[in-house]
Amino acid sequence: MTSVLQSVLDPAGPQAAHISWLWWLMFWVTTAVFVIVFALVLAAMWRGGRARPSADEAADRPLAAAVSFGVALTVVILFGLLGATMWTHRAVLALGAESAVTVNVTGHQFWWEFEYDAAVPSQRVTTANELHIPVGRPVVLKVTSRDVIHSFWVPNLHGKRDLVPGITSAIWLQADRPAVYRGQCAEFCGRQHAHMAFEVVAEPDARFERWLDAQRQLARAPQSAAETHGRDLFLTTQCVLCHTVRGTPAAGKVGPDLTHVGTRGKIASATLQTRPDDVAKWIRDPQHVKPGSQMPPTPLSDADVQALSDYLVNLK
Amino acid sequence: MRKRDQRPQDPGHELPPALEDPKELEETWADDPGLWGWLCSVDHKAIGRRYLGTAMVMFLLAGGLAALMRLQLSRPENPFMGPDLYNQLFSTHGTTMMFLFAVPVMQGLGVYFVPLMVGARAIAFPRMVAYSYWMYLGGCIFLYTSLFLNTGPDVGWFSYPPLSEQLFNPTKRPDVWAQMITWTEVASLAVAVSIITTAFKLRAPGMALNRIPIFVWAQVVTSFMVVFAMPAVMMASTALILDRLVATHFFDVDRGGDALLFQHLFWFFGHPEVYIIFIPGTGIVSTIITTFSRRPMFGYLPVVLSLVSTAFIGFGLWVHHMFATGVPQLGASFFTAASIIIAVPTGIQFFCWIATMWSGKVEVKAPMLWMIGFFWVFMMGGLTGTMLAAVPLNIQVHDTFFVVAHFHYVLIGGAVFPLFAAFYYWYPKIVGRMLSERAAAWGFGLFFVGFNTTFFPMHILGLHGMPRRIYTYLPETGWGTLNLVASSGALLMTAGVIIVLANAWRARHAGALAGDNPWNAPTLEWATASPPAHSNFIHPPTVGSAYPIWQDRPDQAVVVGLRSDVRDVLVTHLLDTEPDHRSVFPEPSIWPLLTAISTSLMFIGSIFTAWAVVYGSVPIFISMVGWFWPKSPDEGGTQPWPATERTLPLPNEAPEGAMP
User: Which domain range does residue A235 map to?
Assistant: First the structure.
């Protein structure tokens, strides 16, 4: 699927489209105001460089009329912009919630937890750092945070919403074209704020449902001796303390759920590729890749790290 | 010993001569020589110069930090520095620029010029002003010492909890931030009170409310904003440090605290802060445009009312910094409307400045060059401000480089460009020498081009999704090129600043002598020597118009009857400036410095233990007792203004145009 460069000006959903309309309206209005007023400044300086100073009140009277006209025009323009703002704000909020997909988004230092809601608890799916959404269907994101304040932002789809601990708030969005959109934390949240990104995979409905179904399955069992060794390492070292792999005894909740980590395009909050060498680099010394991240280095031999990476990238 | 009680006491005698003894007067108002005298000074000109000098050092230091940040961001995944250092740099940069540069430099201008512009011999509460400077200096030293000890604030200039709470930041860095706020707020509150009192009670006879220079109005309005806004941030920072020090749970979500409460308190101060910085800037603009247009300000009344209404509305739009937290639509609409409406008073000022130049005779000297820059830069920042007022756009560009661009356009445009203009405008008054016009043009050109090269691309970076406060970014984001452009602009800005400083350094001794009034300006600070006499005015003026040097009669009366053997100051009525009484102002004293040191020690100690507040109050108490110990019957005394010594004519012979 194509990756899209993140941009407010390249909207891929109704909210971002409304906002980009408002942007261009304000851009052209303010540009016109800027050009006219700055031209007036230069004209005033140029004229003032030649004319004689007038100080008596009678001479100022036409000037007073001109200033009043300018101020009145300013007020009219500002009220016009205010009206456009209110209209856009309503339009942005007016997305039907029928047939909506509900995802609980939880921010952590420095990664994203996405839980797909379902009436039956066993049908709920938890994943991390890669949000899949169906194209053309509204998505309700219920956002909160476990630690500090983060902010959820996918510029091509919608404006941002803060993830405030203790408060759950909802944001609606929708993607109109299938693509991979990049998102990034937009509220300073500590040392790895810069690398707290994620990807939004917008795909056709059928594909989305297939993906969701696959995510509900337990983790794939190891298929080779190396993978089995990797799984055993996973379950007998510190990994198991923080991470979950459903279908194994690993049930840690501190770090991202890794049940299907091999299906995700990227790891470490969209910082590295899900390739054995990148995964190995990450496992060996996360503090080198992302200084200040919460994951400690794993003291394993190179062969063991390789086996562990093989196991993880094959968790499809 | 100075001669006392040697002047005639006979109440029935003729009006005293205009001046009894200029030499004695200057001796009375001068600081004692040497280091001791320097430390004891309560002269508002000395303190104002120190404020301006220290603020300039802070500007250069924080600018240096910004240059390091630009170096780091000039290319993706730059290994130059890690997040730990970068976070300290951007937090200290923002904290310095807001608290230790922008507010103090404006207040320093006020401390130096408000007494001169209203024709007073001194600033009100001179020892408190001295204390405020030492407190400010203490805050500066404390912050930068901490930074060099690797304990600089690292949670942003806003220090939002929970990130700044003990749980997520067990270092002393957020404490440094919170206490530094307290220091500087004590300093700025003290100055605000002094400036308000000076402008209200020490104005020259005849300077009715409608004759107060616009710069003084701007200082008064700003000071009132300081009085109402600063306590909010002190509350926020004190609650934060209490959370950290004695576990009070103000902002601790798990114990019933509220993380958003801090943001409300902070921005209730934080938004007015922008106007606290910008309103004195507009005061400078009005002053300089008036002088170089050679005519009275067009629309004096609307401009003054604009300043006042900006101050009022400025308190009603703080929530637009929090739209992304999810404000309900009705509430958000109110704050959107308020944020858009505040553009109206600023628009009025813009049109009045244009009208003043249009109908005046404009002379483009160095200060006017910076005015052109001001119009360009500030207007662009103001217009992107209307975009940020709109909730839908705000939630897209909030906390991105678009906002970084926006507020640098507003603050550098609204404050730094006017300050550079003020530097060229008032340097001859403070130093007594003229700056080179040629070097000024180069400095302006480099800074202006550099500024736009640095900050304009940031708008686009923000729209392309680059968040603020990131120490690096991945190559695939596509942000590399524009960041490199922005970083290269920083070099030009630096060159511009160096030229301005070199110009000032050279002109200290080599510049042409300025004389009293090199610009032919209309306000009273130009009615005395450059640099001004110790007593400001050998003959304290009275005024008969809003532009005394341009419009007053040559034989305009001066104030007589003030003693020259003590620091005698005339106090006048608020509205009509009728003489009220004479007040003997305090002599220089070491106690403000000692009090500032003991207060600072308590603040430093309280970062480590709550008990420091208890122990630390003892030295503060002792130094306060020393400060207020009565030293002579003259000091601090007030005497009624005897009717026989009226300088001003009685009401029936009030000067032309004075308010009845």
Answer: 225-313
